[in-house]
């Protein structure tokens, strides 16, 4: 009888261990896996869309030149802004956390910010095209952290003066 | 009102410098947006709700700056700069500032 009781206790204990594992390991592992697969897919899609749109918008020029070039000295100037908020995703956040222990380049982060910059410049070109301006001068870019959702996201803002000839 | 981030309005002379004008907004997102962003955060990618929120906030900051310039009877705001700072968890401050100027007659 005592032995049967012992077996039951052990079973209960091991199921508790399984429950503990499920709660503390399997669930986060699942999230990270979903984050990894989903992250790779989102990144690929975004890259494809960037390459396609960069060709589409290649006619619109963006420069850091503070003064209007020849031919635009009497153009209409208007402030245009464009921004994008990109999140790293859970998998990248984990990789970055691990990378931070050893130091070095945060490759995942670098890639994310590079993508966000390209997206912001594309949107700036889009805003210029809406105003029939073939040129944006005095480009400025800023980066800021958005920490509202727990996992850090990054906002890139691009702005400049769109010039539209009369 | 002409607004640009270069030093001069193309083709126009600045006849008078009226001074610094600025506009700012502090905005927080609502819970619905935050939950969506939380889900999106698992895989990563663009948090559209936040992009929109910051665009709206920036528009408002620029409008406030323009209102200040209009009160000074300015023709244009030049050399505009924009900045974003996250002041507390879930809220962002957007600042727009520039120089309000009076313009000479068009050439």
How are the SSEs ordered, and which strands pair?
The complex is a heterodimer of chains A (166) and B (107).
Chain A: H1 2-56, E1 61-62, E2 76-87, H2 90-102, H3 107-130, E3 135-146, E4 153-164
Parallel strand pairs in A: 1-3
Antiparallel strand pairs in A: 2-4, 3-4
Helix pairs in contact in A: 1-2, 1-3
Chain B: E1 2-3, E2 14-28, H1 31-43, E3 45-46, H2 48-71, E4 76-88, E5 91-103
Parallel strand pairs in B: 1-4
Antiparallel strand pairs in B: 2-5, 4-5
Shape of chain B: elongated
Q: In CATH's first tier, which class of the domain at 2-28 and 57-103 in chain B applies?
A: Alpha Beta
Helicity level of chain B, as a percent range? 25-40%
How many DSSP helices of chain A?
3
Number of helices of chain B: 2
Account of the 3D structure:
Chain A is of the alpha+beta class and about 170 residues long. Chain A is about 55% helix and about 25% strand. Chain A has three helices and four strands, in the order αββααββ. Chain B has about 110 residues and is an alpha+beta fold. Chain B has a domain at about 1-30 and about 55-105: Translation Initiation Factor IF3, CATH 3.30.110. Chain B is built from two helices and five strands. Chain B has helices at about 30-45, 50-70, and strands spanning about 1-5, 15-30, 45, 75-90, 90-105. In chain B, strand 4 and strand 5 form a beta hairpin. Classes of the chains: A alpha+beta (about 170), B alpha+beta (about 110). At the A-B interface, helix 1, strand 2, helix 2, strand 3 and strand 4 of A face strand 1, helix 1, strand 3, helix 2 and strand 4 of B.
Entry summary:
Chain A is of the alpha+beta class.
């Amino acid at each position: 009888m005592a032995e049967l009781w012992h077996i039951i206790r052990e079973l209960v204990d091991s199921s508790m261990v399984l429950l503990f594992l499920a709660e503390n390991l399997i669930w986060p592992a699942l999230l990270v896996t979903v984050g990894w697969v989903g992250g790779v897919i989102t990144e690929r899609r975004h890259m494809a869309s960037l390459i396609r749109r960069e060709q589409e918008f290649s006619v619109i020029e963006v420069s850091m030149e503070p003064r209007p070039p020849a031919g635009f000295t009497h153009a209409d100037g208007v402030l245009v802004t464009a921004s994008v908020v990109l999140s790293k995703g859970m998998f990248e956040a984990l990789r970055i956390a691990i990378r931070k222990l050893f130091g070095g380049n945060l490759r995942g982060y670098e890639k994310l910010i590079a993508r966000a910059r390209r997206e912001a410049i594309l949107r700036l070109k889009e805003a210029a095209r809406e105003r029939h301006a073939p040129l944006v001068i005095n480009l400025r870019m800023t980066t800021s952290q958005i920490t509202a959702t727990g996992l850090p996201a990054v906002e890139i803002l691009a702005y400049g003066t769109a010039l539209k000839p009369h | 009102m002409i607004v640009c981030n270069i030093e001069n309005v193309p083709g126009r002379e600045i006849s008078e410098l009226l001074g610094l004008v600025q506009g700012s907004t502090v905005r927080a997102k609502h819970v619905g947006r935050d939950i969506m962003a939380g889900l999106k955060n698992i895989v990563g990618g663009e948090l559209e709700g936040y992009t929109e929120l910051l665009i709206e906030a920036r528009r408002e900051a620029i409008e406030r700056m323009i209102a200040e310039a209009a009160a000074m009877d300015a023709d244009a705001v030049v050399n505009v700069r924009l900045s974003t700072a996250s002041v507390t968890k879930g809220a962002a401050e957007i600042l727009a500032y520039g120089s309000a100027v009076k313009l000479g007659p068009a050439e």
